Amino acid sequence: MTTVEDAPAEANDARGRVAELHAIREQARRGPSERATEAQRAKGKLTARERIDLLLDEGSFNEVEPLRRHRATGFGLENKKPYTDGVITGWGTVHGRTVFVYAHDFRIFGGALGEAHATKIHKIMDMAIQAGAPLVSLNDGAGARIQEGVSALAGYGGIFQRNTKASGVIPQISVMLGPCAGGAAYSPALTDFVFMVRETSQMFITGPDVVRAVTGEEITQNGLGGADVHAETSGVCHFAYDDEATCLEEVRYLLALLPSNNRENPPSVPCDDPAERVGDALLDLVPADGNRPYDMRKVIEELVDDGEFLEVHERWATNIICALSRMDGEVVGIVANQPQSLAGVLDIEASEKAARFVQMCDAFNIPILTLLDVPGFLPGVDQEHGGIIRHGAKLLYAYCNATVPRISVVLRKAYGGAYIVMDSQSIGADLTYAWPTNEIAVMGAEGAANVIFRKQIAEADDPETMRARMVKEYKSELMHPYYAAERGLVDDVIDPAETREVLIRSLAMLRSKHADLPARKHGNPPQ
């Protein structure tokens, strides 16, 4: 039984325990040592907690399992058991909405993943899925913790499984902030978006040393798997920035355009840009001559709210544009051919890029606007042998499978199979519009005339004059701007200056659209 005399001693003991708790928590918050922190900063990198502070709203972070330690033995691990075990996990808010996060702490075991480390990540991923909130990973880890052997590898398996389970359910964003190899690169590849920072972040399955040992090739870390390589060549990276602060600010911007989960719509915002704003500049931006290039980004700027949009994969497969923006305050996904790059043709990489973007939009209830100016698929032996049929089918499959509102606008030319693939009415677009400059046809007039009138041209006294006459005849018969409208292949031919208003009204009408897919476990898309 506690006596009155004992009470102060117990109270003092309680205060001592609380003081001990605060000291332990402060030790976990500071990390291993000041020297380790200085080494991190010497590489131009922030600490894990500094990154979390930049990502989340001020003061909103709630940490989970900050006092977790590994229980491994051998190779000196039993003498080194830092708090957090090299990963900080928890939740907070971004623009007031709940977001879950985990961040590798490179100062502890180089951010390498061990059993306890993985278990913390598994827990926060499970919490994100159950809460229906986005998950952001701040990656700065050296792969599996070699000293823990296969237990570390199994930890990656659990992450991969949860990445797949969460796919299309909650947004998953990977931010690469250091060298990430092996399993540390595969998890980001399973997520919806990958951000990288130039010079400090890399991704590869096998590093330069292994490449040199196996193939004899000499290459740096950045040359093998740096931000620019993955943003321009491989397509692994969706966004690349020069510094961590800018990168994390753009992650916040992306989160503002995405719903928390697949059961919600993207967040709306008040809009001061009038829905009925006339876009007279569009008449000058897009030349009537189908052979003259122009920048499709300027067209998008004229159509969307305040000219603002976030381009995904900006530097990869530049012949097609994929972007998130808003129209009248509502989020919309935009897929558009870019005449400034390869004349806007579809090729292997463009098809893959657009297909993944369409699938993402469909998964997260984002309406899709498609702007067409496409001369066809890129011809060539490399394209055919590389599987343009298979890769082009990915885009076709993605559009056909999408149940969100879909609107397409033919600005200029739309030829052949590429016209069908780019969300034509025949594959399920809800509404299709065309400008008076549109040319919808099986192929260009010159090519068509050479096929249809080959004999007449060859037998003519003046083949060039005959060819010109046949081209003109084909255009007047099958390629005039109203040919598709007369046959119901487009819903209307509209004044380019009124495009924004027409699109906003159409999107508002389609907001309540509901479409079901056939009952099935899942489809079997082309790979």
From TrEMBL:
EC number: 6.-.-.-
Domain CoA carboxyltransferase C-terminal: 274-509
Signal peptide positions on this chain: none
GO molecular function: ligase activity
A Pfam match: Carboxyl_trans
Domain CoA carboxyltransferase N-terminal: 14-270
Name listed for the protein in its UniProt record: Acyl-CoA carboxylase subunit beta
Species, as recorded: Streptomyces ochraceiscleroticus
